[in-house]
C-alpha cells in the first residue's frame, strides 16, 4: 500500500493528500465523541456507515444543484473529495426547539418553531464552538456577505429537501 501524506486529523476523519492536485482522500474513523469531545469512545464499523451515509447525502444534494466536495467513494472507509477552503462557521438549522436552544431560552423540547431558524457557531473546539451573530462573522472576516447569503440560502434549501 502506498504511504500517503496526512494533511489533517479530526475527531471523526483523517484527510490525506489526494492523487491529483486539488483533491484529498477522506478516511472515516470509528471514533465517537460527544459533548465537544469531552466523552470519547470507539464504535466498530462507525466509519464504514458514516462513509456510506455521507456518499448518499452528498450524491442526493448534487442532484438538486447543491455543490459539495464529494467526488466518489473509493472503498468502505474512504472518499475522494475536492480540497476546499473551510469557512469556520457551523450552521444550525432548527425547525423545532431542541438541545441548546431549549436550554438557552427555556423553551420545551419539541416545540415547533413558527419558521425555520438559522443559528451560527464559530468552529473552535477550544472555545466550545460559541454561538455568533452574522455581525461577528462579517466583523472578523470569517465569511463575506455574499458567502453568508449563499450559506443561508443553501441551508434553507437543504433543510427543505431533507
Question: Which structural traits does this protein have?
Answer:
10 strands, Phosphorylase Kinase, domain 1, alpha+beta, 3-stranded antiparallel beta sheet, 162 residues, 4 helices, 30% helix, 5-stranded antiparallel beta sheet, D-amino Acid Aminotransferase, Chain A, domain 1
Helical run tally? 4
Listing every helix as H and every strand as E from the N terminus to the C terminus, the arrangement reads EEEEEHEEEHEEHH
Helix content: 25-40%
Termini Cα gap:
38 Å
Q: How many individual domains?
A: 2
Any overview of this molecule?
The strands form three sheets. Strands 1-2-3-7-6 form a five-stranded antiparallel β-sheet. Strands 8-9-10 form a three-stranded antiparallel β-sheet. Strands 4-5 form a two-stranded antiparallel sheet. By secondary structure, it is of the alpha+beta class. The protein has two domains: 6-82, Phosphorylase Kinase, domain 1, CATH 3.30.200.20; 89-161, ATP-grasp fold, B domain (D-amino Acid Aminotransferase, Chain A, domain 1, 2-Layer Sandwich), CATH 3.30.470. The protein has four helices and ten strands, in the order βββββαβββαββαα. A hairpin with an 8-residue loop joins β9 and β10. The radius of gyration is 17 Å and the shape is globular. The protein starts with 5 loop residues before the first strand and ends with a helix.
Secondary-structure map with pairings?
Blueprint: E1 6-9, E2 13-17, E3 23-28, E4 31-34, E5 39-42, H1 46-63, E6 70-73, E7 78-82, E8 89-96, H2 99-105, E9 112-122, E10 131-132, H3 134-139, H4 145-161
Antiparallel strand pairs: 1-2, 2-3, 3-7, 4-5, 6-7, 8-9, 9-10
Amino acid at each position: 500500500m502506498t504511504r500517503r501524506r496526512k494533511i489533517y486529523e479530526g475527531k471523526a476523519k483523517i484527510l490525506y493528500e489526494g492523487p491529483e492536485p486539488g483533491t484529498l482522500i477522506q478516511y472515516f474513523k470509528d471514533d465517537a465523541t460527544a459533548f465537544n469531545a469531552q466523552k470519547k469512545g470507539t464504535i466498530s464499523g462507525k466509519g464504514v456507515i458514516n462513509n456510506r451515509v455521507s456518499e448518499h447525502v452528498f450524491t442526493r444534494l448534487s442532484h438538486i444543484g447543491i455543490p459539495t466536495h464529494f467526488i466518489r467513494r473509493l472503498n468502505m472507509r474512504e472518499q475522494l473529495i475536492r480540497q476546499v477552503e473551510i469557512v469556520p462557521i457551523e450552521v444550525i438549522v432548527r425547525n423545532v426547539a431542541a438541545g441548546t436552544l431549549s436550554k438557552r431560552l427555556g423553551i420545551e423540547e419539541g416545540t415547533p418553531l413558527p419558521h425555520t431558524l438559522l443559528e451560527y457557531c464559530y468552529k473552535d473546539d477550544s472555545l466550545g464552538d460559541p454561538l455568533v451573530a452574522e455581525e461577528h462573522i462579517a466583523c472578523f472576516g470569517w465569511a463575506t456577505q455574499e458567502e453568508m447569503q449563499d450559506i443561508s440560502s443553501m441551508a434553507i434549501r437543504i433543510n427543505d429537501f431533507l
